Amino acid sequence: MNRVLIILAQQGYQDKEYAGTRNGLESAGYEIMIASTEAGECLGKFGGSALVDLALRDVDIKEFDIIAFIGGPGAAALAQDEDAKRIARDALAHGKKLGAICIAPTILARAGVLKGKRATVWDNGGVQAKLLQSEGATYTGESVTRDGDIVTANGPEVAEEFGQLLAAL
């Protein structure tokens, strides 16, 4: 199948993280689909845009091999989104690969899928690291961290590496 679902915030996703992650996955031959809270268009923090293929509520995890959450200021709201958290939990329950970059690992933490796992996150003064730890994760502080079928990364500089590592799972 080789299909990836990239999840973007409707407003304020991180353009460079999306582009780098997408490049890393496409170069490995993956077909990309985009999901967000609603169908339509997502707008990036730096002016980019992406068309949404699926609303989060309509995602069937069985159709994808990899689920990747992209960061940016808009991604913080997804940590409270029940559909986003369900997708993260379902991904692991169905043996799918799961990734999150920048602030998006907080979505995985809130979904409960980082308990007992090593993970990294973009950390603003200790806030995000503490959130991961409060949800049972071991914060590594690394640029990219892999623990089993979960890959987390801390920002745009490592987005392509993040995508390539996800593809290599």
Secondary-structure blueprint:
Elements: E1 3-7, E2 11-13, H1 15-26, E3 31-36, E4 40-44, E5 49-52, E6 54-55, E7 66-69, H2 82-93, E8 97-101, H3 105-110, E9 118-119, H4 127-134, E10 138-139, E11 144-147, E12 150-153, H5 159-168
Parallel strand pairs: 1-3, 1-7, 2-4, 3-6, 7-8, 8-12, 9-10
Antiparallel strand pairs: 4-5, 11-12
Report a brief summary of the structure.
The chain has 169 residues and is α/β, with parallel strands linked by helices. It has helices at residues 15-26, 82-93, 105-110, 127-134, 159-168, and strands at 3-7, 11-13, 31-36, 40-44, 49-52, 54-55, 66-69, 97-101, 118-119, 138-139, 144-147, 150-153.
- Indicate the multimeric state: single chain
CATH C-level category: Alpha Beta
What's the mean pLDDT score?
A: 96
CATH architecture: 3-Layer(aba) Sandwich
| SSE sequence, one letter per element | EEHEEEEEHEHEHEEEH
- Uncertain runs are none
Total number of helical segments?
5
**CATH homologous superfamily assignment:** Class I glutamine amidotransferase (GATase) domain
Q: What distance lies between the first and last C-alpha atoms, to the nearest angstrom?
A: 14 Å
Strand order of the largest sheet: 6-3-1-7-8-12-11
Strand-pairing-aware structural class: alpha/beta
Largest sheet: 7 strands, mixed
- Beta strands, count: 12
At the third CATH level, what is the topology name?
Answer: Rossmann fold
Helix content: 25-40%
Beta-strand portion reads 25-35%
Overall shape: globular
Taking Cα atoms only, what radius of gyration do you get, to the nearest Å? 14 Å
In the residues, how many domains can be counted? 1
